[in-house]
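Consider this pair:
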Amino acid sequence: MRMSISSSTTRTAVTAAPREVREPLPMLPADEACCPPLLEGAVSEEEARRAAARVFKALGDPVRVRLLSLIGAGPGAEACVCDLVDAFELRQPTISHHLRVLLDAGLVERERRGTWAFYRLRPHALAAAAGALAVG
């Protein structure tokens, strides 16, 4: 079955609205800056290299982001490593490696209870990471 579509074109005249007359922007003296300095309040290169970069590198893996989410969703914002392993289709050594990266980055802390390790979020570390990205 073949369909044909016919259309007709209609031309419409378009007229431009009169332009609004604006006042020119004031000129600032040469010794006055228009904006605050870009680097004011920014972390130093050393801080960025050591702390922030390590945190963001740790957050660069989806498994680690999910681990943080699972730990935060647990009662008291903590979780046993045995429960975390069961939530993934990964082996325990792989999960332990990812938890170690989060621990080294300062995003979680670990507490031994008998044979099990419990991981707890460090909210101030997450807030500091978010603050490093804050605008303004």
Observations:
- Strands lie at 78-80, 108-113, 116-121.
- The two ends are 62 Å apart (CA to CA).
